Structure to design on (286 residues):
């Protein structure tokens, strides 16, 4: 009798320790499955929900999300790009000044801004400005049973709610990424040339020597993929939200945290995958 009670207590304690782990694995599987379904449904969505995709693009570009209007994500990206690029210019020049190689400031500015700074800044701004709105919208639909109503009406909720937003974000991120990239180029050049007095001809020579068409293409690919990742993460947290309005708010916070971690992780993966473990600089033979 005593041994049976001890066994039951041991099993209960083991179950209490393992249940959170098992639940975490199940939840992770749900999010991964949702992401795969959302990405795989892109052809289906373009075929059946074209009007809704166009509506999402219109809202993200000129509507409440305001990706291109002055007070929306564009303003955030411009401010973040200018601040980050100025600090890049300051630290780049100071570091090269220690070894007497300030003439290479243009080369480092071209590489750092194109390959790392611009895509990451745009992705973080998209997550903070647009992604949290996606989580709130879809989460509100979940707690008000609107998603269940879509399923009852034989409307595939994942393509209709998530995939349409993924396509729209991938389309809309390109113009704002280009503007942010241009702003980072200008800000770094102003710091190095105007503030520190570096030769503009030398700066421009090494800048154009180190910047190739493939770098711009790969950087744009990173920005588009980051936009898709951010949108999928935020839509998935909204889709599985629970607990009323408070749960939706918590889901938005967790989604922002997860998307930023995903951006950092995939940034390293794409940098090594696109430029290699030993990157080369065009025109310098390095």
């Amino acid at each position: 009798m005593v041994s049976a009670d001890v066994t039951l207590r041991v099993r209960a304690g083991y179950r209490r320790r393992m249940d959170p782990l098992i639940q975490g694995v199940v939840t992770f599987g749900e999010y991964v499955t949702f992401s795969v379904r959302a990405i795989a449904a892109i052809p289906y969505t373009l075929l059946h929900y074209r009007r809704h995709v166009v509506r999402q693009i219109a809202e993200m570009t000129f509507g409440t999300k305001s990706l291109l209007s002055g007070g929306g994500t564009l303003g955030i990206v411009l401010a973040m790009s200018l601040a980050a690029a100025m600090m890049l210019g300051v630290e780049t020049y100071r570091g090269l000044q220690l070894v007497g190689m300030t003439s290479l400031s243009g080369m480092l500015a071209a590489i750092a801004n194109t390959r790392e700074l611009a895509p990451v800044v745009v992705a973080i701004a998209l997550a903070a400005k647009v992604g949290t709105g996606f989580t709130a919208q879809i989460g509100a639909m979940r707690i008000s049973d609107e998603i269940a109503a879509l399923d009852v009406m034989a409307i595939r909720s994942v393509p209709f709610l998530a995939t349409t937003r993924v396509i729209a974000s991938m389309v809309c991120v390109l113009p704002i990424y280009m503007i942010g990239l241009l702003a980072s180029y200008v800000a770094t050049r102003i710091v190095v040339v105007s503030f520190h007095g570096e030769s503009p001809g030398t700066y421009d020579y090494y800048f154009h020597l180190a910047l190739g068409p493939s770098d711009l293409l790969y950087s744009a690919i990173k920005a588009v993929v980051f936009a898709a990742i951010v949108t999928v993460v935020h839509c998935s947290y909204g889709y599985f939200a629970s607990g009323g309005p408070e749960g939706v708010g918590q889901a938005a916070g967790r989604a922002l945290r997860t998307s930023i971690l995903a951006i950092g992780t995939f940034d390293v993966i794409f940098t090594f995958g696109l430029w290699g473990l030993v990157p080369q600089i065009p025109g310098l033979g390095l």
Observations:
- The first helix runs from residue 2 to 40.
- Residues 65-71 have pLDDT under 50 and may be disordered.
